[in-house]
Amino acid sequence: NVDGSKKSPQNKLEKVARESWDAGDTHAAILSTQEVKRLEPNLSPECQGAVHIKGEIVLDPWLFPMALLVQARENGLTVYTHFQYLAPESHFNEKEKVWTMYRKTSDVGAVPTTEMNTSDSPVPGRIRARVVINATGINCDLTQSDTANCPPATWKSRPRRGQYRIFNMTDKTRFECPIQPVPSHFSKGIFVFSSLYNQIAVGPTALDQESRTDREPDEAVAAQLSNLGTKILPGLDPQADVGGEYVGIRPGTDRRDFQIHAYPERRWISAAGIRSTGLTASLGIGRYVIKSLLPTMLDTSDCGNEGIILAQLPSLERIIADFKARDDGYVTLYGHDYRVTHPLTALGWT
Questions:
Q1: Given 3-state DSSP classes, what are the helix, strand and coil percentages for the chain, each rounded to the nearest 5?
Q2: Nearest Cα to 129, choosing from 109, 108, 100, 106?
Q3: From the CB of residue 179, how many other CB atoms can be counted at a distance below 10 Å?
């Protein structure tokens, strides 16, 4: 957390540091202007001090969840892509305590089939499930409200637009630590951070919007992000160094916290409102759902760690080489093709 203001920077930084200390991070430290300069010499001289969170790291936002997916697949998970959920036709059988989930194959109706294919291909027309975990992102509320026999959502999704500007790193702009302004009660502010691929990312913005799909970059916002980048890193050339831009949509809700709820009588679990901090919290969220919520619906006593296969990904260099050699936006991991969907990863590998 960096403070570039002239008004009581020490008090603001002490408040930020206190939150880290209270959370158990005893390594968080307040840095003076001189200490910041030694740590990050390319940072703006306007910086009045900082809180250094030594344990903060940057990772690949696409590769980390793919590693989890590969691990799960190697341990028996079946994945169906292109399964567009048909909520109105799906239903819960009270007697059997089983959900039947239908796939939409056209503008009307579900697949009129009773065949239950359990392989990765072809995609079945329907799936039967003892428990459903609704993790459909920005559409979590619609998925729940449109599904028959399902308790209505107690939250409403509010799409929040986050725009990023990407720059290529040079010797004049090289830095190591993620840079964040002192947060307010309403926002953590716009970050400036370096990726694993010598990129500088400036963002995200935080703008509520009605559309759940509009990811078109805004030129005026792009200019604002460029100006912020040059303010933080004076050596940045906003024209020559630009490498790309993208917009993401956070699955925000009208509630502040993650919306993780269990409905045991309907064998349904919702994991909604999982915004960007969800990547950091993902393993904890998964453990909470499996260890605390799922046992209210199923006997999970035999779900231990015995016999788990550890699936290590190939080296990053090998994955990038595969991405470039294929030149179709995909990579192959453990015999399965995966499309690289995160712009920061795709830009870094190109």
A1: 30, 25, 45
A2: 100
A3: 22
